[in-house]
Amino acid sequence: MARDHYKTLGVARDASAAEIKAAYRKLALQVHPDRNPGDAVAEERFKEISQAYAVLGDEEKRARYHRLGDVPGDLPFGDSADLAKVTEFFDAIFGDLFGLGRKRAAGQDLRYTLELDFDEAALGCKKTIHFARSEDCRVCAGTGAEGGAGGLQPCPRCAGQGGTRHKAGFFSTRRECLACGGSGQIPRVRCKACSGTGLCESEREYVVRVPPGSQAGSTQRVAGEGSPGRRGGPAGDLHVIVRPRPHPFYRQQGDLLEVEVPVRMEEAALGTEIEVPLLDARVRMKIPAGTQPGSVFRVRGKGLPAAGGSRSDAHVRVQVEVPGVCDDDARAALEKLGGMLGDDAYPRRRAFQEMMATMQRREE
User: Fold this and answer.
1) Distance from the CA of 255 to the CA of which of 142, 297, 321, 342 falls in 20 to 30 A?
2) Burial class (CB in 10 A: 0-12, 13-18, 19+), 51
3) What is 250-321's CATH superfamily?
């Protein structure tokens, strides 16, 4: 007598695919072995409704069922369905709702710090980098076994199921087998090239295109260049982190380029013309007489690359450099100069002295 799969699932003969799937999920969760450990009746019921869904959930088998009814040799699990196979069928449809199962696992991400000169990060560049990552062993094709996939055998700890069941009160949980890592297979003889891990270290080469205006900490993600995934899972990503080296004269202040230019004290006092290097160009500019230390001059459109191909401004900061070493003649000349220059030549020094005098009068 043909089985009434519609009655088993409690749905009408004209039920939609979504209605059939929802009915199966509801019933299967009620009688799932993980919720009913040791219950033989629930186990048989779980097999029965899974058998029904295996037929009605497939359009081709459902049409054949309407025409001919069940054909024993054509049933998905056979008349004596193995519980492990039925459970795997359920997990394949809804995922392992009660444990880890044999899920694909993504590979780990890798980090690479790319050190650049200041102008390379500011103007952009291409750099070839070399880094190490784990890859599937070529000798065993990532299986960890001598002879590749043919050298694998069912894991004895989990009987090839990839997981073990643990009872916890009323429920039981399924955990990934530690012996085989959830694959259900272990090597008969471990691959000598990778010591049975299935992975080998290899050096990778990649050309990184650093965009203009990259600052310290800028990160570029390269998809799929990280470590490989497990059980067919996707590889991780490579994260390239830019770290510009400190520059003795260049600074980045937000979107602006700041250039520190040392000038001699007589040049600052009398005025001069200097040449300033600005990343990929040189400009000449005048330093007016009486320029003070720390004075800033703006050079438009010669700074850091900006959006749309434009350039920000550059700030030229003057640093007046005092001689560190003086011979006798130079010392005599400086002393003579100091005697010739009165307080009017040093307005900020005069203002400072006046402030000190005011404080002293208050103290008296």
Assistant:
1) 321
2) buried
3) Urease metallochaperone UreE, N-terminal domain (2.60.260.20)
